[in-house]
Structures are given as C-alpha cells and as structure tokens.
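Homework help board

Subject: predicted structure for assignment chain

Our instructor gave us this sequence and asked us to write out the predicted structure in token form, then describe one feature. I got the tokens but I'm not sure how to describe them. Can anyone check?
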Amino acid sequence: MTGDEGVRAGARAARRLAELGVCELAPGLADAEFDRIEAEYGIVFADDHRAFLAAALPVGRAEPPDEDASPRNPWTDWRDADPVLIRERLEWPVDGLLFSVEHGWWLPGGRWGPRPADPAEAVAAARAALASVPRLIPLYSHRYLPSRAPGGAPGALPGVAAHGSPVLSVVGGDTIHYGRNLEEWVELEFAEEDADGAGAAERWQEPAAGDRVPFWSDLVV
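My token output:
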C-alpha cells in the first residue's frame, strides 16, 4: 500500500463511520492543527489515521450512553478537549501496563530479564524498558493506533508502518488486535452483524507479520 493508498484508506474509513451514524462529527482537522497536536504531544499520525481525522473529527457519541455505560466520552476531541485528558489517554497503555507490573505481571519470554522481587523496582525496570516502545495514539475508548517517529527521525520507532497498522485494544497487560487496519476496525467496532448472523469476534483475523506493531502486537495472546 503506497502513501496515497493509505490516505484513501483513511478517507474510506471516515466515510463508513459517517454512514453508520454512531458518533457526532465535527469538521476535520486542518494541517495547522495536525502540526500543533503532533508538536504538543510528541506523536505523528500515520497516513491513514491522519486522513481519517482530516475528513471529519469524531467528538462524541451520537446518542447519550446507556445507563450501564461509562459516561466518559470515548472519542478524543483533538481540537477542544482538555490537554490533561488527552495526555491521560496517551499515557493510558503504558500506565496500565505499569499497574499490571505492580500487581505481578511481567513481560513473558524473558525479554525484560528476571523480574525484580520488589514491586517498586519491577515498575522502575518496566518503565525504563517501555520508554523505547512505540507510543500509541487514542482512537476510540481503549482502542489505539501506533504513532510514527516524532520529527521524522528514521529508525526511532522501528517497524511502525506509515499506514495500515492494526488497531489495538489495550487494557493493562490485556492486548488484542481489534481490526487489521482502520477500515476493518470501523466495521468490527460499529457495524451490525453479518446477514448470516456472524458476529465481529467470528470475523477477526490476525494482521500479517509485516503489519504488526512492534512490542504491542507481541502482547497479543
């Protein structure tokens, strides 16, 4: 997929989201707004993610949440949301992993070495290791797409694609692929069941090896 194809894929995902009518949409982000956001938060949107938000900016639910649903807005309003809230969402994946580490989780496979016996030391070691993994950008609730290298630095985030990365659902140490790409995620997250009754879980497929997100995809069991 070329860069232009990534832009077209993001635009198609935005059109499909609008067709489904599941969220309130504001005018898309302009280039100057992307520049400000990326500089302020130290992230770089992939081509498809950028095109998705440039077509129209999801800013809230289409309808009030159900009684048993969280009242918190699942969408990130990159234009008008409180920067503190945006930073919270940006830090959520790492903070969630560190919380899991504090309560006994440790990266399997020995890549972090032996787990320190002291929980505080384990958290410190995990925090140091996580400083080099790709940052994740909030998409919807705890669904994320990876950031590219800030400032265009080659190799800063090795293996993060310019577009076509899978959407990740991240809650503590529990990570799954929630769509092989942005377009598929829109269908799995918001579209109705297939005509034959197959639900989203039955249609999930793992991304190709070359499309996986470094570190984060390795957490998927």
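Reply (TA_rk): Your tokens look well-formed. For the description, you could write something like this. The radius of gyration is 18 Å. That's the kind of observation they're looking for.
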